[in-house]
Amino acid sequence: MGKRLARQDLAFLRSGRVIAGAILVGTVMICALFAPLLVPHDPQEQNLITTLVPPAWSAGGDPEFLLGTDSLGRDVLSRLLYGARVAMTVAILASLGAMLIGATLAHIAGYFGGKVDWVIGRAVDVWMSFPPVVLSLVLMTGLGAGISSVILAIVLVDWTRFCRVLRAEVLVTRRQDYVAAARLVGFGHWRTLTREILPATMPLLITLFSIEMGIAVIVEAILSFVGMSVGANQSAWGQMIADARQTIYESGWNLVLPMLAIFVTVLGFNLLGDGLRRSLDPRLMQAREL
Amino acid sequence: MTPSILSAEKLTVEARLADGRRLSVLSGIGFALEAGKVLGLVGESGAGKSMVGRAIAQLLPPGFGVTGGSLTFGNRDLVHMGADARRELLGREIAFIPQEPLSALNPVMTIGAQFGEHLARIGTRSKTRRQGEALALLEAVHLPRASELLNQYPHELSGGMCQRVLIAMAFASRPKLVIADEPTTALDATIQARIIALMGEMREAYGAALIFITHDLRLAAKFCDEILVLYAGRAVEKGKARELLSAPLHPYTRCLQLAAPSLSAPERDLFTLSGEMPGLARLADLPGCRFAPRCPNVGEICRTQEPRLTPVTAPLGDDPSRKAACFRTEMTPGIETRSHAASSRHERSSPLLLLVEGLEKRYRSRRGLFANTELAAVDGVSFTVAENEFVGVVGESGSGKSTLAKLVIGLETPSAGRIELGGRDAFDRSEAARRRRVEVAQMVFQDPQSALNPRRRAASIVTQVLEAAAPRLSASARQRRAEELLAEVGLPAELGARYPSQLSGGQKQRVNIARALCATPKLLIADEIVSGLDVSVQAQLIALLRRLRHELSFALLFISHDLAVVRKLCERVLVMRHGKIVDQGMTEVVFGAPQHPYTRELLAASSE
Q1: B78-91 mean pLDDT
Q2: Which of B336, B376, B430, B540 has the smallest C-beta neighbourhood within 10 Å, fewest atoms?
C-alpha cells in the first residue's frame, strides 16, 4: 500500500475543516487517553471545605483548582478529563457497532436487491418508527444502567441511520457500469462488493461514522444526565451537568464547563466528518493535474 | 448589404485561474450575422464553440469573462450591457434551443404550465390567449394532439417531442436571433433530420437569424449559410457552407472532413489525426499555430508564428468572405487518405463463435391498476457471429440493441431462447462457467464515465481481470501487463497512474477497451462506444479497433445508431426495430441496396 499513497491521496490534510476537526477531536482523545497522567487531583476526592471554588481566573479562584470545584469540592478539571474517557469510549465503540451492523445490512440490501432488500428495508422502517429517545430509554430500563448498556442502546437505536443512508449510495453505485464490468471480468460478489462498491461508499461511511460519534457523545450525556450511564463513582459530562443544576446560582461555571466540553467534541467530530467527505471523494477532485 | 443582427469583433474570452494566471479561452473571434441567415459554429469539444453562445447570454462559467473585443446585437453592446437590460433581451429577442431537451424542461410542471409561464414573461397577459398561442405554436412545430400535450409532463414525451416543444417556445417571442447549441446531439438519427428540417422551417417562417453550434461539419454544411470552424479557441476557417465543405482550406477542416465516415462515398480509410486538442492549461505554452502539433502539413513557420484569419481565394467558387488561418493553405487539398482495397475483409468460412437462437426478453410493465402489459425488449432474435468477424447492430433507441448486448454477455437473463458462446451453452449459471466466459466474451461499455471506477487508476482498471484470475500475481508483473495493454490501445505508460477524471473522453474509452482486452477474449461486445466522441477521436478509435483485430484477432458485436460508422467497421450488419431483427446481411449489400423499408428509412435519415 505504501507506494500507492501518492501526494494527492494525502490532499485531505490541506482542508481547513479536517485540520480544525482533527485538532479538536485529537485534543479530546489525548485528554481521554492520558487522563490519569493529566489530572491534578483524584476526580472523586471530595473536600467539603473547598466547595464551589470558582475557576482560577475569576475573583476568589484558587490556582490549585484550575477550573474550580463542584458542590462536593471535587476538582472540575479532573472530572472533565475523566468524563472525556467515558465519552470517547462510548463514541468509538457505539459508532463502530452501529456502523458494522448498519453498513453490512446496507451493502447486502443495496447490492443484491430484490427480496433481501425488501426484508431489510421493512426492518429498518419498523425500527425507525419507534421514537429514538423512547426506544433508548426502554432499552436502558431493560438492560440496566452502566456504560456497556449505553453502548448497546446506541448501537441498537442508530444502526438504522447507517443502513438507510448507505443503502441509497450503494444503489447508485450498483447501477454504474463499472460494477457490471467488474462482474464481467470475473469478480465474485464478495470481491465486487469490497473492491468496487465499498471504496465508493467509504467517504459517506466515514462522514456518517464521524457524525455518529458526535451523536453518541450527546446520547451518553443525556443518559448519564438521567443517571442511567456510569455509576456515581465515575465522572461523566452529563452527570456533571445534572449535579451542577443544584448550585446553578452559586456557580454557573460548573454547568457551563461540561456543556462546553460536549459542544467542542461534537463540533470537532462534525467538522472532521464533513471535511473528510469533501476531500476523500475523487469525484470532487476534478483533474487537478491537467 | 443588409445590416447585421449580431456581429462579433475580435471577441476574447479569458479564464482566470486560482493562481492568478489568465488563459485565453476564445481569442479574436469575429463574424457578422445577417437577418434570416444561419451561422454554423463548428468544432470539437474544447474548441470553445459553446463559449460563443454563453458569451452572448453572459452565462460564462465562474472565473470566465469577456476581456476584449465587441459583441453587438442590432446597435446594442452586449458585452457592457447591464443585467436588467440583458434579461429583457434574452428569451425575447434572443432565444435559445438547448442541447438536452429533457433536462431543459421542468419535470414537475406540465408542458402547458411551462409554456404559459414563458408566454406570460414575454408579454401575453390573458390566460386564454396564452392557451391559444401555445396551441398554435405546438401545431406549428408539427406536434400531434397539441391540446392533450399541454396537460402532459415532460417525462411522458420522447426526446424529439421535448425538443419540438422547446423550439416552439424559442420562437414564441418572434426573436431576431436563435442560438441552438447542439440541438440534435442527444437525439436519434431519424429524429435528428426532422428536427433540423423543423428549425429551418421555423426560421424561415419567423425570419430569425440562427446560430447553430455543432461538432458535425457535414450537418452544419447542410443547414447553414456560413460556417466558422473553431479550433482551441481560435477561428481557423470561415466561409460559405457548401464551398467550405467541398474544398476546405485549413488542414483542420480537411482532417475533420476526412475523419467522418460516410455512407455513400467510396470505401477509403478514415483520416486519423494524431493526438488531441490541447487543453486550456496547455494552450498558453503553444507559441505558433495551435493546430501545429497535430497538423500533417506543419512547416517551420507554423511552430513559431501564429497565423491570422486572412482572406484566401478559394480554388473553386468565388466566395469573397472566405478566410483561413493557415500559412500553407495551398497544401491542404493534398491531405488524403488511402482508398480501400478489400484487403482486410473477413472470410465467411471461419468457425462459429456465437450462436443466438430465438432470444427473447420480456418486461412486465404495469399501467393503471389492472392492465398488466408485457413489453418485449428483444423479441425472437436469431443470429450468428463467426470468429474474427465484425458484426454491426443498428437501430433507433428503444429498438432493443442494448438489451441484446446485455443478454449475450449475461448481464440480463433472457425470457426464452438459446445462446451458445464458443460451443458452450451460455446459460450455465455456475461460478466456473462464469469464469470461463470471461475469457470468451468481454464488453466495452457505452459511457466511459460510468464504466470506469473513479477510484481506481487506469493501470489498475485495465488489469482488473488479473485481480480475479490471478490474485497472487506480483505488483510488478501486473504493472508490466498494464503497460502492455495501454501501449496496445495507444496510450503512453505514464497515463496508467492517472484516475479516470484526469483522462479525456477518448483516453477513457481506450482504457475501457483495454480492460476488455486484458483477458484476450474471442468476442468483444461494444455498445455505442464511439457515439459520444468527437469525430477525430471517433476515427482514431475505429482505426484502433481495426488494428487490434489484426494483432489480436477477435470478433466484434458492434452496437451503434450511426450507420456510417458501422459501414466503416463491420462486414455484416443486423438492423433492429422494436426488438426484432428486420434486416440482416453483408454491410455493403444491406446499405448499398436496402431491401427492407425500415432500412431505407434509416439510411435516408442519416445520409442525404
Answers
A1: 85
A2: B430
